[in-house]
Structure formats: C-alpha cells, structure tokens
Amino acid sequence: MKKFVSLSFFSLLMLVSFAQSEKYVKAMEKLVPSIDTLWNADQLKDLSNSFERIADAEKTQWLPYYYAALARVNAGYAIMMTGATGADKTDPEGNKAQELITKAEALSQNNSEIFIVKKLIATLMMIGDPMNRYMTYGPAAGEALETAKKLNPENPRVYLQEGADKINTPEQYGGNKEEGKKLIEEAMKKFESFKPESAIHPNWGRGQAQYYLSK
Amino acid sequence: MSAFKINLLLFFFLAVLVIQVNAQVIVSGRVMDKKKPLAGVNVVLKDTYDGATTDSSGRFSFKTSEKGEFVLAVSSVGYKPFEQKIKLEGSPVTVDITLKEEITELSAVIVSAGTFEASDRKKAVAVLDPIDIVTTASANGDITGALKTLPGAQQVGESEGLFVRGGTAGETKTFIDGTLVNNFFYSSVPNIAQFGRFSPFIFKGTVFSTGGYSALYGQALSSALILESIDLPDRTTANVGISVLSGSAGYQHLAKNKKSSWGASYSYTDLWLAFKVIKQRQDYSKVPAYHNADANFRIKTSNTGMLKYYGYFSSNKLAFTTNSIDSLGYKDRFSIGNTNHYHNLHWRESLGKKWKVSAGISYTNNKDDISASMQDNSKTDVVLGGLEFKNFDVDTRGNYFNTKLVFEKRLKGLSAIRFGHELNHTHDKLLYTAYDDQQYPSSIKESIHAAFAESDIYITNGLAAKLGARFEHSSLLDKTNFAPRASLAYKLGKGEQASVAYGVFYQNPERRYLPSSSELTFMKATHYIVQYQKVVNQQSFRAEIFYKKYDNLVKTGAGNGQETAINNNGYGDAKGIEFFWRDKKNIKGVDYWISYSYLDTKRDFLNFPYAIAPNFAAKHTSSLVIKKFVQKWKMNLNTAYNYASGRPYYNIGFDGTGYKFNDRGTIPDYHNVSFAINYLPFIGKQNPKSYAVWVFQVSNIFNFKQTYGYQYSYNGYRKEAIMPTSRMFVFIGCFISFGVDRSDEVINNSLN
Predict the structure, then answer these.
(1) A109–B750 CB contact, under 8 Å
(2) Please, which pLDDT band fits residue B740 given cuts at 50, 70 and 90?
(3) N or C: which end of chain B has fewer CB within 10 A?
(4) Residues B380-432: pLDDT tens digits?
C-alpha cells in the first residue's frame, strides 16, 4: 500500500508537470503567431505583457522572455513608424526590451535568436538620438548581428536584418536597395530550409521578407 | 496497486482539472495615478499566466480559471510596485488600483541651483557632453573653451582659466574623480591664454558649478569644475590623429571578460607649421612644442567596484621675443620649459546595506623653468640701467598630493548622507635669480585637512533639500574655517523646477602672493542663488539670479620689488542674472543654444586703490552656438558667436605713498565668430571598422580686431594693446579610431 501511495503520488506529480508544460505550450502557441502579424504599438505592448506574464510564472523558459522583448522592441519601431521620433518616445520601449532580453539571455546563452533581438534594440536606441549614440549603439548593433551570424549562419533572420538595414539606410550612408534585396533573397532561401526546434521556437520573418521583396 | 485504482485517481484528477477550466472568474478594474488613468500597465495574477494590459482609460479585465487566494500585482516605471491579495471564488472580482509615484532619479527634483551638469547620467540635466565639447566651434576642442559658451563664464582671452561671476581664474578649481587637480592648464605665458592639459574624451561627466556647490568641494571661492573619468571602454580600439598642429597615436585594450582594460597614448604637438602660415605677433626662437603621453588602467574589482588609474606626462618648451615696450629698439625675451606629471588613482565600491565608499589619491609634480631678459637687436642679452628687473630666471618645483575619502549611505528613497575627509598637501619651491646672479629661494609647505558632511533629503518627489557643512584647517595660515551650505529644490511641473542655494566658501591666499610676512587668513565668499529651470523634450531653459559677497580678499604691497600679500582687508561683491536656452527640437537637424549673462561687480583687492569693477569682468556676455548635421554630406556644420561688452582696464602705480590710477578706460567690445566643419565619412556604414573624423576649423572668421586689455611700460608713458597672438586661426586635422573586432572573443568567452 505504501508503495502504491508513493507511486500514485509520483504519477500525479508527473501528470501535473505534464499538464503544466502542456499548458505552457498551449499558451505560447496561441500568442507566438501574433509576432508575425501585429504592427500596432498598443497591441504589441499588450502582447509583450502577455509573454512577460508567462515568463515570470514559468521562471525557467527563455522563449517567453525572448518574445516579450521582441514584441516590446517591435512596439518601439511601431511608434517610430507613426512619425513620433526622438529618444523620449522610443527609449521606454527600448529599455524595457533590454531588461527582458537580459532575462532571456540569462536562461539561454550563445543563442543566435537572442542576438537578433539585441541587434534590434541597439538599432532602435541609436535611431532615438543618432548624433550622440552612433558611436556606442551603432557598433553594438553591428556586433550583435555578427555574433548572431557566427552562432548560427543558417538563421534566416540574420540575413533579413542585414537586408532590411541595407534597404532602409539612405544611399549616402551606405544603403543599397539592390544589395538589400539580394540579402532578403538569401534570407528567403534560408527560410525554406529552416526548421524551428518546435512550434513555439522562433520562426518569424517570412512576411517581412516578402514585404521587402515586393517593395 | 491495481490499475483500476490508478485510473480512478487519474479520472478524479482530470475531473478537477476540467471543473477548474470551466469555472472562469472575471477580474476587472482600473489603474490610476492620483488623477489620471495609466495605460499600457501590465496587471498580473502572480504565478499564473493570467492578467491584462490596461487600456487608454486605465481599465483592465481578464478571465481566469484559477481558484483560491492569489496576488494581483501591478508594476509600472516610475511607480511603486502594487500587490493585493484577491480571492477567486466564482463571483467577479473588481479591483481599483491607485499607484503611488516612486521617488526615482528620473522623476525627482534635482538640487541644481548654480550647476550645469553635463554628463551621461540620466538624472542629469544634460547640457553638454564630450561630443558637444569637441563640436563647439569656438572651443578648439578644449573643455573650458566649451564652458565659456555657458552663462557665468567670462570671455577672457589674455590668460587661461574660468573667470566666473566676477571671480578670478584662481577662484575656480578643477576636480578629477573627486580630487583636486593642481595644474589643469599648461603653465602661464604672459598675455597668451593656455589650453587645458586633458582631452575631453577621457571624461564621461562634466559638472560646471558657477556657485552654491556641495560641501564635498572646497578651496574655491567662485566655481568648481567637477570631472568624472570614463569607466571601461566599450571595445578594444586603436586610434591615430594627424593635424596641422600635432600627431597622436593611442591604444585601448579591453580584456576578454570585459572586466578590465588598459591603454596608453602619445602625442606630439608642434606649432611650427601653423606659425609658418599664420603670422604671429611674437617672434619665436623656440616654437611651442609639446610631448604628451598618458596611460590608464581600469579594473572592475567586483560587480559594484571599480579601480581606475590615469597617468599623464607632459614636457613642453617655448621661447619668443617681442619689441620691448620699456625701451625702444630693444626686445623682451621670454622662455619657459615645463614638465608635468600627474597620477590619479580612484576606487569606488558598494559596501552593502546601502553603504558606498569612494577613495581617491592624486599626485602632481610640476616643474617650470622660466627665463626673461632684455635683448638688443642682435639678440644678445643686455642689462639696462633702471631696467635690471627685466633680466631674471625663475625655477619653480611643485609637488602636490591630494587624497579624498567619501562614505555614502542611502536612506529611504533617494535620500542619502555623505561624509568624508580631504587632504591637500602642497610643497612649492621657487628660486628667483636676479640679473646679478643673486639668488632668492623660497619654499612654501601647506597641508589643508578638510572634513565634510552633507545630506540629500527628499521630503517628497517634488521637494528636496541638500544640507552640508565643511570644516577646514590650513597649516600655513594656522587657522580653521567652517562653511555651511544649503540648497532647496521644488518641482513646479513636469521638468520644471525652482531652486535656491546658499553657501559659504573659503580659499587660501593665492600662492603667487606668498610668502608673506603678515598674518593672513582665508578669503571668503558667500553665495545666494535663485534658479528657475525647465527641461522638456529636447529643450531646456534656465534663468538664475545671484548675489555673491566677498570678504577678507588679499591686499598686496610691493615689498622688495615683488607683489606680496600684506593683509586680508579686501572685499567686494557681484550680482547678476543669467539666461540659458537650448533647443534641439524646433528646427530639424539643428541644435543651438543661447546664453546671456549680466554681471555687476566691484571689488577692492590686490593693489586696487579702492573698490572698482575688475579688469576681468564684462557687464554683458553672450554666446550663440549652432550645430547642424547635414545628412547628405555626412557633415557637422558648427558655428559659434561670442560677445562681451568692453571690460575696464587700469594702470595702477605706486607713487611712494599708495597705489594710484595712472590710466584707466574701457576696452572695445569683444566679438568672435568661429566656424567648424566635421566630416564623418563612416556615418551610416554597417558595422564600420574605423571611425574617421575630419576637422576643419576657423576661429575669428570675420577677422574682428580683438583687444583683451593694455600693457604699460614700467614708467607708464607707453601703452600697448594686448591682443590674440594672431587675428584668425585655422585648424585642419583627421582623427581615426579603429574598432578592433571582438565578436570572436565574445563568442569564445561565452562558450568557455
């Protein structure tokens, strides 16, 4: 009987933890696709908050912190797209994203995907006050992207960012639409062969790549 | 242990799960500040995934299947975290939440009367940062040059230093990482202002206080320039620079673990080429040449600790002749050789329980060999009867040792107390050799011990006070002083605040009027300042009214041909109003600032016959600085206009009974327009490997005639204008910094 109790207790524990991780996956599955479709600052902040709640409850998963940071930095870019430039508008999102990605990195080091988000944050911070920040955030963005590439040369988002930078940068600053498109095409090829580890692992960017190609 | 029993248990468990899923509770409410709703706030049911983000009216609502007692948590930047227990028992739960503002460095008032903080710290009212300094057209890459475009400082061109609010240059003291710097400028040369020794790029923070500063600083009657050196560099870099004046090279190495760095640099400056092209008023027999080298290391001793060393070495020489004003057909020769080394070691650490310590030691050794003589037309030294005093040698040796120890304890919120000790030990040796080889040595040793304490008291987010006091003992004067300081800041609105400051400041008589046979005491200044400041969204405005009272200023007499201190009977006052406006917002791509100072000051000190407006104080001083970044050309176009109304000038002579005016008047108004172009070819490059900055700079582009004052022949019969060494000056240079790629190191290190 003693054996029975302990065994059933054990299976109950297993069940609970299994149920929990299933709950985690389900919750994530519901939210993750939005990262590719939302482009409104308020909705992105809401999405970031949802990921952050999962992250704080789970405590040991890097993915929700990663997505929370990604949604947060995208909210910053969304604010910028509405024409509201200036560090005072975008810095709060950049700083919050930085805080979140630091937590993600503490749970998963040498992660190419995390370096992509770090690149996005550094670029957002730089655009906020380019005159005073190009010497710090400029190289930081470049380094993050290079590190992302070295950690995983097959990561399509590396080429997506490189291409987007080339396309969005004015020509006198080294921007080049043709080169940019080539990089995006490279990204498309990588997307074809890219297999995410699971349904909730990073797999975003195809839509953006197609958008750049159609431009 | 039958399978049935397990299944039963499983069924039971699943049933509970299902029931839980079905019984959802709605939690809703509103998150408010005192009055206004807070949008975008994350409302979290702790340890669950459930929660919501507030909408634009601060409302939130979410469903949860959890049951039992939970904690509802809300946090938002600038507010104290909020937590409340709620019971989920099936019926809807409504929670209205009011967040309390947190006293943070971002939102709280800053006790700022009298100070211009120019640093990268978020809380600072960032007025000027290192990039601003080097891109200010009239600054010539010099820290004090840029500070002269701020209100409070005079446009004095005939000698170096910051003349603040009616004070002499000697009343401004400079501190690096808390400790006093004794030879901030290159050694004085008659009628030619010298540059500061240190590059603006070694400092991350600059605080320029024009009055009412903290009890941590003393021995300065008028102003404190507080410089904070940089911590670890972002990456390993090498740099080279070449210009019409100089060549330089340097290397900074950041360790793989990013916990320590070291660096060294060397520069050689020679004005030969510049003087060849731009005619100088002086006839140089030895064109100024400077060897400068520096070295540093920085070690992160723990998560919160930092040990920094900065060492500087300089050796320079110059010699020139000018037509002698005292005897027609003869020349005055002047030469100076200077060697200086400076070492600064600074350590800071958190001791836990909100205690912090900061300790610094600095040592300076300065050596000047000055020689002056009369020369005839064949450039041979001659001694003329009655003008023997014009042939002399002065050799000075200065050894300066400073320490400072500060403890800080953070109290509730932002409130804090600070206290500590400072020692300034100086030993000046001087050897005066007269024309007849008679030698007059002198030596002055001095130790000033100071103890200080101050507290930052945040009564609310919008009301703060800083109260402090400083106690000093001078071994040379054998006297002590006690200097109370107080300031108060009140927040009027978002980014808007008013402050007042009061303080007593003491300073020893200047070394150059010593030794004295009389008993002397500290000179004293009392400051009263009222300030209004508004900083919002890339725009800042500041207005300040001040009154400064001087007591016990040093009076001098002409004992054995030298001007020496005889008593402390001097006095004076200064009052004025200053405005500052900076706008980075209204005109796209343009950053400009305007400053204006009105100064009304009189003093009786040194050899003044009675209280007069001193020759270093203009009534009206104003600057306009404009910077425009032209994206298309990758260029920074900078221009600056400096104006000062005519300063008084005097020729004061001793007639056997007392000091009298032999001549007096007002010099013409001062105008200067400078223009600079910085070309940044790397801008916009993806991950550039090198950063090149081309600099082209012209000062006094309109060739205004600038007069700084007059000098007189020994008998007062002839006078001559003191003017800049050349009307216009042109500077061309290129500075390249190579970022050494470290991404491999980053990866390798994090894999290990």
Answers:
(1) yes
(2) low
(3) C
(4) 899 988 888 889 999 999 999 999 999 999 988 778 999 999 999 999 999 99
Residue in A44, A36, A76 with CA at minimum distance from that of residue A200: A36
A186 by DSSP, 3-state: which?
Answer: helix
Distance, in Å, from the CA atom of A84 to the CA atom of A195, rounded to the nearest integer, reads: 37
Length of chain B: 752
Strand pairing partners for B105? none
CA distance A18 to chain B (A): 12
Tokens 């904690």 correspond to: B71
What is the domain extent for residue A147?
Answer: 32-151
- Separation CA B373–CA B391 (nearest Å): 4
- Sequence-distant (≥ 6) Cβ neighbours of residue B62 within 8 angstroms: B26, B27, B28, B43, B45, B50, B51, B52
**A147 and A158 inside one domain:** no
pLDDT digits (tens, 9 = 90+) for B542-593: 899 999 999 999 999 876 667 889 999 999 999 999 999 988 878 877 889 9
Tokens of A167: 């396309």
Token code pair at residue A5: 């109790």
Residues B592 and B677 in one domain: yes
Q: What is the pLDDT of residue B121?
A: 41
Enumerate long-range contacts of B582-586, CB under 8 Å, 24 or more apart: B582/B127, B582/B539, B582/B540, B582/B541, B583/B538, B583/B539, B584/B538, B584/B539, B585/A86, B585/B537, B585/B538, B585/B539, B586/B539
> Rounded to whole angstroms, how far apart are CA atoms B502 and B113?
9
Same domain? For A160 and A143 the reply is no
Q: Do A143 and B687 touch (CB under 8 A)?
A: yes
Domain termination site, one of A123, A151, A179:
A151
Task: From B233, B234, B207, select the one nearest B220 (Cα to Cα).
Answer: B207
- Number of Cβ pairs < 8 A linking chain A and chain B: 113
* Identity of the residue in B45, B129, B691 whose CB atom sits nearest the CB atom of A132: B129
Q: What is the domain range of residue B391?
A: 115-231+250-293+303-565+581-751
Smallest CA–CA distance, residue A58 to chain B, in Å, is: 8
Provide the whole-model pTM: 0.79
Query: What b/e string do you get for A174-193 counting C-beta neighbours within 10 Å, with b at 16 or more?
Result: bbeeeebbebbebbbebbee
Nearest-angstrom CA–CA distance, B193 and B704: 18
A138 and A166 share one domain: no
A59 in the same domain as A40: yes
E strand spans, B376-438: 381-382, 392-410, 416-433
User: Per the domain annotation, does A60 fall within a domain?
Assistant: yes
Tell how far CA B75 is from the center of its chain: 37
* Whether A128 and A206 share a structural domain: no
Domain assignment of residue B121, yes or no: yes
